[in-house]
Amino acid sequence: MFANAYELIVFILNFIGIYEPINNIFKTLGIEYVLRIIIVFVEIAVLFVFALLTIMFLTWMERKVVAMVQARYGPMVTGPRGLLQPVMDGVKLIGKEDIIPAKADRWVFTLAPFLVFIPALLIFIPLPFGESLIISDLNVGLLYIIAISAVSPIAILLAGWASNNKYSLMGAMRAVAQDISYTIPLALSAIAIVLFTGSLSTVDIVTAQNGTWFGFIPKWFIFLQPLGFILFLIASIAEMGRIPFDFQESEQELVAGFFTEYSGMKFAMFFLAEYAHLFSVSAIVVTLFLGGWSFPYISLLPAALVPLVSLGVFLVKTYAVIFFAMWLRDTVPRVRIDQLLNLGWKIMIPLALLNLLVTGFLLTVGVF
């Protein structure tokens, strides 16, 4: 097997017989490092294309899920079953006029959408999409994910402040308050998993969930941490700002929230970030609690098939979590802002602390 996606790319190039000739040319020129840099850029390009295609599919999928709940068909005209509707949406946004309000802070207003979108992509780096399908197996992968996630609220606050609009600023302040309230139970629930694995590496966390109990029950952490899973899932949905927790952009109160003044491709960056975040957060839930790419007896498959099958397993689990989040959007009403904050501070944080203490105690006395 391969340690990461870099080694997998090298293997593929070797398999088709072009790696050695290219490597020899770079060696002769004394610039071997350039080839390594090129392969890294190939990884980044593949990741970006994968993220873009995923976002496009998710926009189509959400429309179909909402339509299903409402007994409608959803997009049907553009392409087969409306599959090309996201492409036309992109074309429409590219063609829109890019307006900057007269009294806005121009530079911060322009920079903020990129500061929201880029962290949403960077979260993909330590995610194990399958056996050997990871950009970089960071030994602090989980800490990296939590740290990168903390950048988005700052960027949202900048967007709201730079817009010079009271609705935008109010939406941004709500987003920050909401993020602070739910990052704590989310992190505490993740720490309970770290106690089981003794590692912050996402690969180690998935590996720890390999195997079965009694030959048929997967050793997924959802069975050892049911309360942690529920808390993490609720906190994740709240962090994404999706219904029933979409207070930063609640249309009835704040027009469009922190991106009220944005249009064209700047608006599209927020749109892309939302769906990239939806996928990455769902993937984190799968990695921590649902076994990641692991599945009972997957190791019995031929070695050449394991990366492909493990990728399929990971995507099926991730899209199941995404479907739940989309279904929740159209079936649960928005709660009040005071109810949201009370839920976070008065219920979820104490429960997350209790879950962490009980987990630590049970591990100390040797129950697990």
Note down, in words, how this protein is organized.
This protein has 368 residues and is mostly helical. It has one domain (96-364). Helices cover 67% and strands 1% of the residues. It contains 15 helices and 2 strands. The protein has a two-stranded antiparallel sheet with strand order 1-2. α3 crosses α14 and α8 packs parallel to α15. The longest helix has 38 residues, at 32-69. The radius of gyration is 22 Å and the shape is globular. The model has no long low-confidence stretch (mean pLDDT 82).
Short structural description:
This protein is an all-alpha fold and 368 residues long.
Number of helices: 15
What is the count of distinct domains? 1
Rg for CA atoms: 22 Å
Q: What oligomeric arrangement do these chains adopt?
A: single chain
| Class based on secondary structure composition and strand pairing | mainly alpha
- Gross geometry: globular
SSE ordering: HHHHHHHHHEEHHHHHH
Uncertain segments of ≥5 residues (pLDDT<50)? none
Q: What fraction, in percent, of the residue positions are helical?
A: 55-70%
Task: Quote the distance from N terminus to C terminus.
Answer: 30 Å
% residues in beta strands: under 5%
Q: How many strands appear in the DSSP assignment?
A: 2
Largest sheet: 2 strands, antiparallel
Mean pLDDT: 82
Order of strands, main sheet, comes to 1-2
